[in-house]
Design goal:
- The protein is 41% helix and 20% strand.
- With 530 residues, it is an alpha/beta fold.
- It has 3 domains: 3-9 and 18-289, Aldolase class I (TIM Barrel, Alpha-Beta Barrel), CATH 3.20.20.70; 310-393, Recoverin, domain 1, CATH 1.10.238; 402-515, Alpha-isopropylmalate synthase LeuA, regulatory domain (Double Stranded RNA Binding Domain, 2-Layer Sandwich), CATH 3.30.160.
- Strands 1-2-3-4-5-6-7-8 form an 8-stranded parallel β-barrel, surrounded by 8 helices.
- α3 (38-51) runs antiparallel to α12 (278-289), α5 runs parallel beside α7 and α17 runs parallel beside α18.
- The longest helix is centred in the C-terminal third of the chain and has 21 residues, at 495-515.
- The protein is globular and about 70 Å long.
- The protein starts with a helix and ends in a 15-residue tail after the last helix.
- The chain binds 3-methyl-2-oxobutanoic acid (KIV) and zinc ion.
């Protein structure tokens, strides 16, 4: 049985099985500022595959050389997951997509066109011309690949008759999956369920294929809409880790997976996702995208399992079920109490990191251990989050052209702050002193004095990793230079030093990009569907 046959058979053979289609690397990465490096994309794809995601949308191959390379490499390294690439409704896009995904054991082409009146007006196609285009492009994709997904973009604002007509055309042309996107996050749960139910009931051939749901979160209903679509008969949910995505984001993978797991009584559907891997992947996506997870975010937020009030703590101690509907371990959250201190040894560190889903080679562990000891000397209590920040902060060090060596800052009331910064630039040590409007401003000016650049600061964010005045601060800095965007992060108990390192980390990433082909910018737009 081919993959297409399996997908076509899914509604009958596996009524309760919902496939998870992750689009963190495509729709998620598309959100302004969430750009990931090539290596980061490969790492996230590997984690998604390990976690049991069924389909990974790895990118939009024609959008840039970088996207093409990433999708091809992810396809080559894929294990169980289907690897999918996105293509607009034209032959060139579809060919390019196939060139990238064909390396996968289980490739899929996902082609789309905007079908609502507003979207039809952009390529200026009549309804009949667009219908013809859909037939031609899905047929072309199907001639290349036996697993084709088709999406009518802005489906929830497309006239019913026209939507039903084009869905039928796509099915007849060979699409095994038809995705119904709520592109602008406009629909509501009842409508979301009804739309899928009606398509299955009224479109000829609809019971032979899989319907997917793809919801955006503009009105905060993406998770509810996706689950409602499943109740209506959809058997594929398109989602992203942490709900990353354009504008208010997409349906959050962790939310739909845990909703179906915890409320199996009213949502009797199964996925293949190993939920104990959710926390780790959430943290990695937050780090590499530079989009921190809000504290009170469902499932993966820092406070999602924290019980502050006396009444809650008392109840929790007597019986955890009083205030907990799922166990922290179910989502991969290990004990966050004090675990390691300055007397802890290398074996304790290795075992703790392993619990957190981080396995390091001996030399890497040695390096992290040295930095852990330095941290433990400065900080009484070393929490899980501290360790994760420590590991992540050291990851890029080896290939960095710019390295912060030392920083001394003097601040006083009524006087400008002074920063005295030493860095190595391609191995050569240089020092600069600058004044500024506060310690961070002075420090960033010193970095620019040592490494003049035109990069524009788009985001500067400080995040306390743990509690207390000795907590580590994780600083995120997003820079933009000639259309390239890079996010740098660093963590330290000294916020100004963490800021300097995060800024320099972002500059290093811009340098890596500049050193490459210079073609990594997205060259086309989603609206350009003609
Ligand atoms: O939101 C949307 O409509 C999309 C399509 C490209 C599927 O992301
Ligand atoms: Zn989308």
């Amino acid at each position: 049985m081919t993959d297409t046959d399996k997908d076509r058979a899914a509604p009958q053979a596996q009524k309760d099985r919902v496939m998870i289609f992750d689009t963190t690397l495509r729709d998620g990465e598309q959100s302004p500022g969430a750009t990931m490096t090539h290596e980061e994309k490969l790492e996230i794809a590997g984690l998604l595959d390990d976690m049991g995601v069924d389909i990974i949308e790895a990118g939009f191959p024609i959008a840039s050389e970088g996207d093409f390379r990433a999708v091809s490499e992810i396809a080559k390294r894929s294990r169980d997951a289907v690897i999918c690439g996105l293509a607009r409704a034209n032959l060139k896009d579809i060919d390019r997509c196939w060139e990238a995904v064909k390396h996968a054991a289980r490739p899929r082409i996902h082609t789309f066109i905007g079908t609502s009146p507003l979207h039809r007006a952009i390529p200026n196609l009549s309804k009949d011309e667009m219908a013809e285009r859909i037939h031609e492009t899905v047929t072309h994709a199907r001639n290349l690949c036996d697993n084709v997904q088709w999406s009518p973009m802005d489906a929830t604002r497309t006239e019913w008759d026209y939507l039903a007509r084009v869905v039928e055309i796509a099915i007849k042309a060979g699409a095994a999956t038809v995705n119904i996107p709520d592109t602008v996050g406009y629909t509501a749960p009842v409508e979301s369920a009804d739309l899928i139910r009606r398509l299955i009931a009224e479109v000829p051939g609809a019971d032979e294929i899989v319907f997917a749901t793809h919801c955006h979160n503009d009105l905060g209903m993406a998770t509810a809409n996706a689950l409602a679509a499943v109740e209506g008969g959809a058997r594929q949910i398109e989602c992203t880790i942490n709900g990353l995505g354009e504008r208010a984001g997409n349906t959050a993978l962790e939310e739909v997976v845990m909703a179906m797991k915890v409320r199996g009584d009213i949502l009797p559907y199964q996925t293949r996702v190993d939920s104990t891997k959710l926390m780790h992947i959430s943290r990695r996506v937050a780090t590499v995208s530079g989009f921190n997870v809000q504290y009170n975010k469902a499932i993966v937020g820092k406070n999602a399992f924290a019980h502050e009030s006396g009444i809650h703590q008392d109840g929790m101690l007597k019986n955890a079920e009083t205030f907990e509907i799922m166990r922290p371990e179910d989502v991969g959250l290990t004990e966050t109490n004090i675990v390691l201190g300055k007397h802890s040894g290398r074996a304790a560190l290795r075992s703790k990191l392993k619990n957190l889903g981080i396995e390091l080679a001996d030399n890497q562990l040695g390096d992290v251990f040295v930095r852990f000891k330095e941290l433990a000397d400065r900080k009484k209590e070393v929490y899980d989050e501290d360790l994760i920040a420590l590991v992540q902060a050291g990851e890029d060090d080896t290939r960095d052209r710019l390295v912060v060596k030392s920083l001394r800052v003097v601040c006083g009331t009524g006087k400008p702050a002074e920063a005295d910064l030493t860095m190595t630039i391609d191995g050569v040590e240089k020092t600069a002193q600058m004044t500024g409007d506060g310690p961070v401003d002075a420090t960033f000016k010193a970095v620019r004095a040592l490494h003049p650049n035109q990069a524009r600061l788009q985001l500067y964010q400080v995040h306390a990793v743990t509690e207390g005045t000795d907590a580590q601060a994780t600083v995120s800095v997003r820079l933009e230079e000639e259309g390239n965007i890079a996010t740098g992060q660093s963590a330290d108990t000294d916020t100004v030093l963490a800021s300097a390192k995060a800024y320099v980390n972002a500059l290093n990433r811009l340098l890596i990009r500049r050193d490459r082909t210079g073609q990594d910018q997205k060259e086309i737009s989603y609206k350009d569907v003609g």
